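Feature request, filed as a ticket because there's no other form

It would be nice if the structure record came with a short human-readable summary line next to the tokens. Right now we just get the raw output. Example of a typical job, pasted below so the devs can see what we mean:
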Amino acid sequence: MRPLSVLIYDGDCAFCTSSVLFAERYVRPRCEITPWQFADLDSLGTTRERAEYELLWVTPTGVVHGGAQAVAKLLLNAGRGWAVPGALLTLPPLRWIAHGVYRLIANHRQRMPGGTPACAVPADRRPQSPASS
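Raw output as currently delivered:
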């Protein structure tokens, strides 16, 4: 068992990297932070496909949370005033709304401040809408 949780992000995405740098500076979670490109994903209990798709929070016991719930876990872990929005993000209906907002941002991260074309989620990794299936 690892002593700390691990936050895994896309190190090739400028928007993701900027977001993690913001979290390190202002939120200050007590965790290891690593780009998926340098992580031993097998030992962390996840896959490259999932790491390319969403932010991941891996607990010391190996439970993997992704997307908006990874953000919630990061905020809860930081404590102080950050724990309140973190806790709210775990409760329905805010949990569902957070998931939708997270997917919207993640699917268009190349258009976000600091984003570049390299930030785009590959088309084959984007969720299919019911209309396109």
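Something like this underneath would help us a lot:
The CA atoms of residues 15 and 115 lie 5 Å apart.
Helices lie at 14-27, 41-44, 48-53, 68-78, 83-88, 94-107.
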